[in-house]
Amino acid sequence: MSQKLFTGTGYLTKLMMRQNRFKLFLWLVGLIAVTLATAVSYPDIYPDEQARAAFVFTMENPAMIAMLGVGYEDYATIGALFAHEMLLFTAIAVAIMNILLVGRSTRADEEDGRVELIRSLPVGRLAYLNAAAIVAVVTNVLVAVLIGTGIILLGIDGMSAEGAYLYGAILGATGLVFAGFTALFSQLSETSRGSTMLSFGTLIAAYLVRASGDVSSEALSLVSPLGWTVRTEVFVENYWWPVYAMLAVAIVLGLVAFYLNAIRDLESGFIPERAGKRNASAFLQTTMGLAFRLQRTNLIAWAIGIFLLSASFGAILGDLEVYFTDNEFVQAFLAESGDTSMMEQFIVLLMAIMALISTVPVVMAVMKLKSEENKHLTENYYSRAVSRSRLLGSYVCLSMIVSFVMQALVAIGLWSVGMVVVEDGIAFDTTFASALVYLPAMWILMGVAVFLIGIAPKATGFVWLYVIYSFVVIYLGGLLEFPEWANNLSAFHHIPQIPTMDMDYMRVLILVVIAIVLTVIGFIGYNRRGIQG
């Protein structure tokens, strides 16, 4: 009987591998390239004992412990410095990859009707979930092996073979834990949106619990899987117990997910959806209102997260001079200027990163139309007196409103908390200007999404590559010494860095014009092409 439950797993695994091969290739290349390129730069960032001593001093600060995790007792090697500063955020990136992969291959496929189609064939009840689990395991094993082997091949002093493979193994194990959470939530929730939100909520909660525990209570930190990640002490003590613990948790989560999948009905969940209102409001009856309602929960969650994140950064503004003045790693990111304070330089970097984070819900808002088309739901619009331009325009307007709201929340969060912790306060108008000046760059990414929806609908996923590329340019471009032409490819690189630079209205106007051109071409293409379904 148990064998029949998994009949057809091999064929479905090949199918999923083929469906996701391009996305997985990009994720693997991105993770490996950024990790190895950053590792190569560390000997130049920390060339002597003085630079390493400054790093140790900075890591003793509670704010840095909350941000990066508990420190090591020994920072004698480049490997220890690299692991402490890069491991946690790389693990978070791997967790995001797994959430998206498993969410797409389980609840999203079920919601789109693919699982029902597969079930009509001679396959086992658990074969689809089993195939998704195998793909996740293979992907995380590749992450562990390729990153570990890559670090060894670099031959950097202090990066031993055991530490290198432990670095890769803890990344893979962290990914498997969140793959397990996503598989579990895919059984509990009735929608892909709900399972994805629960998974990302778990990731955020794990980070916050770990941050609080690392500062105040180790026992609390050990409740979080990310708390185990930072306690491997890679390239120093090389503790393997967190890897074994995570693998055990991943197995338990997987077994529970398999059991729930076996006893529930197709397209059902154990957490029922809240009943809606009997009658729709006047706003909901418009294309704009429906576009917002379909994404309301997601957008509200992003808004809350962005506000809390910017507020948490605002809490450390008062002591930035102590935190970062002697840190060569952070200095490599910050603009070199003798006329600006460390706080102003930090605000420049922070606003760029927060703008990129805010761009995610902005692009998601307009990409929702393509998702609706893939599910053949746009037919419901076009069966009424609704034009293509009106429908696409509703999603574009919503995306622009989201961009303004998100950046306003970034400015409010940073300014409101900064006013309390900074002795002389921070200027309200400067804070808002430094946040809102990134709107044209965000609109260009929105324009790229509209352009692809209209001209090349099958290639809309490329917009996320551009988002990732922009993040790498902003966050690691200076550290990795990218050539100028590579930096110029990112719209965010052309934004005036307020408050360390004056406003460049001509440059901003050019970015706005580019965004308008991309959007208009997208509208023309969308009106002329065939609609799926």
Automatic annotation (TrEMBL):
Keywords: Membrane, Transmembrane, Transmembrane helix
Coiled coil spans: none
Residue ranges of the TM segments: 86-105, 126-153, 165-185, 239-260, 299-318, 346-367, 392-415, 435-455, 462-480, 505-526
Full protein name: ABC-2 type transport system permease protein
Organism the protein comes from: Oceanobacillus polygoni
Species classification: Bacteria, Bacillati, Bacillota, Bacilli, Bacillales
